[in-house]
Amino acid sequence: MERMWAEIPQMTLDEARRFLKYITREPKFVLTRILPHATSHVRSSEPIVVATYGSREATTCLQVFVWPSGAATPIHDHTAWGAYQCVLGTLGEERYVRVDEDRAADVAHLRKEWQRQWYPEDGASTVGAYDAGIHRVTNRSGKLAISVHMYGPRSGALDGRDYDPRRNYVCDRIEGDEFNHGLPALYL
């Protein structure tokens, strides 16, 4: 199985969703790549990327996130499709749609479209690129959560956009910025 992690193959969003379902139920992956992080007692208001496999620029990328109790992402989107599956604990997700007709460079008016809780048995949540995937993910439980994420390849350094609905503001997020789903990745 270790050979699989040398390179993540190029996948479509639907293939990534199926792969997440498979890999999060694979005992060796869960025991060696997920559960060691379950003992982490890190206090953070943001999720922590503890492992990255693949390159976000060149191919499909897989990342493992640890979510301390209370951790949350800002409202954001991505430049490529994405999918994630909760492996341990519970994560909440809110989805948003843009309602501004005249799109100025740094202005975005959002409306919450739906929200739900994701449990390990629910399968993967999927998002499209840019406006097709504006969301926020949170761990509102009192327990640690862990999730596995997959992203399609992006073109260029732009990682997505961050939104602040209190100010109707949107800005680009560049690779290497402080926010990359919370914190820079720790490559294992």
Main beta sheet, described? Answer: 5 strands, antiparallel
Percentage of residues in helical conformation: 10-25%
| DSSP strand content | 35-45%
Task: Name the overall outline.
Answer: globular
Distance between the termini: 16 Å
- CATH homologous superfamily assignment: Jelly Rolls
Rg calc: 16 Å
Mean pLDDT: 83
Structure explained in plain terms:
- It is a single chain.
- This protein is mainly β and 188 residues long.
- The chain has one domain (2-174): Jelly Rolls (Sandwich).
- It is built from two helices and eleven strands.
- Strands 1-2-9-4-7 form a five-stranded antiparallel sheet, with helices on one face. It has a three-stranded antiparallel sheet with strand order 3-10-11, with no helix packed on it. Strands 6-5-8 form a three-stranded antiparallel sheet, with no helix packed on it.
- The longest helix is centred in the N-terminal third of the chain and has 11 residues, at 13-23.
- The two termini are 16 Å apart.
- Residues 177-188 have low confidence and may be disordered.
